[in-house]
Amino acid sequence: MTLLESLKQYTTVVADTGDINVISQYRPQDATTNPSLLYHAAQMSSYRRLVDAAADLAMQRGGTHEEMAEELIDRLFVLFGCEILRVVPGRVSTEVAARLSFDTEGTIAKARKLVSLYEANGISRERVLIKIASTWEGIRAAERLEREGIHCNLTLLFSFAQAVACAEAQVTLISPFVGRIYDWHKKERGGAEIPPHEDPGVASVTRIYNYYKKFDYRTQVMGASFRNVNQVVRLAGSDLLTISPDILEQLERTHGTVEPQLNAATAKSSAGDRLHLDEMTFRWMHNEDAMATDKLAEGIRKFHSDARKLQEYALSHVAAKVG
Predict the structure, then answer these.
(1) 131 assigned to active site
(2) How many Cα neighbours within 13 Å face the side chain of 245?
(3) Which of 94, 158, 175, 323 allows an S-S link to 292, with CB 3.0 to 4.6 Å?
């Protein structure tokens, strides 16, 4: 048995890639994409047909170059998502633009549009997760979308305050960023490697998982942004784990078994009281976590930078089509 096969006994494995061939290779339950992954996948000749199809649909919409480029990106996300759903039995996560991270109404409008495009392609909204940044505004958007049956994956999650607010909003799942939490603390310690048993990213996800299970929240925990196999193994038992192709490969080629480190029964006896967060309490609690405030702001900037690359790519295709 490989570590990947063993892990799948306890945790839903999600592929963190836009490369459909890689997804087919590792047979995950779900897959997640973002503008950076999509941008790189779109450069591959094997996916040129999807880019061309998205561009044709954008041309049909008309408008300014910028409007057609945005339409191309929306269509490309959905076309890639539809292809991914031919391979995975579960769901695909599709991201709302980072520029909408502080825009509740804009996030809701974009989510509704993406879901409507999936449904027009014959994909049920049950198989789609809309990825939204875990800002206060994003969480409020997700709360309303969930009431409409649009399921949300709250990303860029670093603080316990974000996790609590997401659970109270009854979002479908959250993606705490294990590796980026680790990176911040490693830098704070002068760059020295942190022993596995002290890994702050693993500890953060463990705390959130225990809190959710202790108080019977329906929101699921999907650890993300891993730096090594050990971080994955130490979170075996989490509801889901989204894993990059390089770490999936390491898990696939390593023989052995993993033991679940997280389980709902143990979580019931974990420490901590139930919290209720209004906006002021959320913002103060999140602000008190220096790592979380740094990494959330940085993550939004990086996601936006990646989205700009995709936008420039889309604009070049629009310009070529218009002639």
Answers:
(1) yes
(2) 11
(3) 158
Q: Average pLDDT of 27-39?
A: 84
Backbone angles phi, psi at 136, to 5 degrees: -60, -45
Terminal C-alpha separation, the chain: 55
Q: Predicted confidence band at 123 (pLDDT cuts at 50, 70, 90)?
A: very high
Does the pLDDT at position 323 exceed 80? no
Q: How many CB atoms lie within 10 A of CB 63?
A: 13
208-244 residue pLDDT tens: 999 999 999 999 999 999 999 999 999 999 999 999 9
Fold classified for 3-322: TIM Barrel (3.20.20)
Q: Is pLDDT at 17 greater than 90 in this prediction?
A: no
Structural domain spans, the chain: 3-322
Asked whether 151 and 172 are in contact (CB, 8 A), the reply is: yes
Q: Are 240 and 10 in contact (CB under 8 A)?
A: no
Candidates 131, 213, 214, 295; catalytic one = 131
Q: What is the pTM of this model?
A: 0.94
Neighbours of 317 (CB within 10 A): 20
**Of residues 322 and 67, which shows the higher confidence score?**
67
Q: How confident is the model at residue 155 (pLDDT cuts 50, 70, 90)?
A: very high
